[in-house]
Amino acid sequence: SNDFSARFSVRGGDHSNVLVTLDGLELFEPLHLKDIGDGGLSIVDSEVIGGIDLMAGGFPADYGDRQNAVFEMTSKRPSDENLTSVAIGIANTRVFTEGSTDDIGWLFSARRGYINVVLKFTGNEKDLSPDYYDLYGKLTFGNDRHRFAVNALLGIDDLKVVYDSGSTFDSGYTSGYGWLTWDATVSPRMTIRTISYAAVTMQNRNAAYRRSSVDDERSTDHLGLKSDVTWSAHDDHLFRFGADIRSSQADYDYAKEDNSLFATRFDLTGHEWSGYASHKWRAHPRWVFDLSVRTDHHSHTDETDISLRISSAVTLDDRTVLRGAWGVFRQSQNIGELEVQHEWTEFQPSERSTHHVIGIERLLSPSLSLRVEGYYKTLRNVRDRSETFEDFDEFAPELLKNILLFPETGRIYGLELYAKHECKGQFSWWASYTLAKAEETMDDQVGHTRYRGLTLPQKFDARNAFTLDASYRPSGRWSFSAAWQIRSGWPTTPMRSSTFFGSTNWSYDGTRLFESRYPTYHRLDIRVGRSFSFERWRFEASAEVLNAYNRHNIRTYLPTFGAATFDEVETERWLPIIPALTLRADF
């Protein structure tokens, strides 16, 4: 991920290729601040999260319509004791409460965000006024055989921007979800989870510049029902199967005035259904084999996709497991993802990725484990897109000079090493290293002749990446942690110089697309926490420093007039050093 966004790239893929779920429900728009770094924060408060599972590739057919990875969140189970927590930090204020009686449990979180203080550290010259809010609530009830959970999640954003020139930009986003989950234990060998859900997303963007403007209003509604069955027919045979059906509607009202006028307004309705079946077979006490298949249908694109997936695990000895996976993964263009801002009014065909994964896990000691994994992914029907090189912070990028790219195929491959030391004592750490390459090949029949047939790095291609995370708890009151990361610079298009009336000017060279790279990125974050316990309540203070040694990580080069050499070209950076203090009280 980058410093401004909670979105992240998994194994070189785009963040839009990651399926994000909460308690089994897909979150179509999971982030706040979508106009700042393409999503600065999650709409799900970390306080309500009980567990996270990231499946980076080769995941089973239970998960569909995403071709790269799955980010699965599970909310906390309400505690037996009633607890209320209030926290105030540099970016938000939060109220959280949970508790339960004999049969009923509840969990509620409310958060109000204000990142103006953080933005001042970036040196941004625009007058930004971003606000965000989110609410989450869960009510659980039932008995040993039938458990029910009523969930609601709401995220709201509001942004106003005033430029020195008098131009303005404002936007508002709403993302709301409501779902009822029924977990039924039919027998000791069969469980069924059924989820009925409704989701709505809305956005409103308005830009009023000196010679151009944008008015963009969109909304998407989903109403659906899904069910998943797990059946242990035998000690050596586990079956999983399920289905998901939903109706969807999207409304578009878009107008753009620049050198020309483009406007469109229309409504779309559609239905989607999917189904999957999986058989996990313990063929040998040391060998487990999983075969699964799924199908997805989307009426708005008139497509039906079929995906076959295979995975296996072999226990070589008491400390070593060999794993492998192969599968086909499809991803359609959601009914609310039509890019009318680029004057595209037709949906693109579903993308296809084929995963090949093999890895080995070794327990080196009771507290130290090592994993080595290699992967190779081929891509087909890569989605067409628009790229701009002018201003990273532009809130209406469709008004800038854009280059249309028509990739056809691609491949992503790499080797990952992951080590983790975890014990019940005071010190723990984990480290990872990745050697990888992500590239795509342009269509040789479509688009500008300059780019036809070219093989280019993907925008999140980083050849080398290393992360080290460590924590130390000398007692129950003190905690120390640090995280350091370093990676190769992402691809960028080099700049070229030109002379005008004796002045040397620099601008992007569109003939050399992604032939250069940003400098190596690295950053250290540190955190210190101290808690104080009293008879009826607990207080905690934590101090954090982001980018502790103030590394000047370049995020974009700016067209510059009057720079004699490239070293004098203006740049914008990722986050500088930022101190933060969070105060929390539990009672």
Structure overview:
The protein folds into two domains: 447 residues, TonB-dependent receptor, beta-barrel domain (Maltoporin, Chain A, Beta Barrel); 114 residues, no CATH class. It is mostly beta strands and 587 residues long. The two termini are 35 Å apart. 1% of the residues lie in helices and 64% in strands. Strand 33 and strand 34 form a beta hairpin.
List keywords for this structure.
about 575 residues; mainly beta; Maltoporin, Chain A; 2 domains; 38 strands; globular
Q: What percent strand? A: over 45%
Within CATH, the superfamily of the largest domain carries the name TonB-dependent receptor, beta-barrel domain
Name of the top-level CATH class of the largest domain: Mainly Beta
CATH topology of the largest domain: Maltoporin, Chain A
Arithmetic mean of pLDDT: 92
Distance between the termini: 35 Å
Number of DSSP-assigned strands: 38
Globally, the shape reads globular
Number of helices: 1
Radius of gyration: 25 Å
Helix content: under 10%
Helix- and strand-based class? Answer: mainly beta
- Second-tier CATH architecture of the largest domain: Beta Barrel
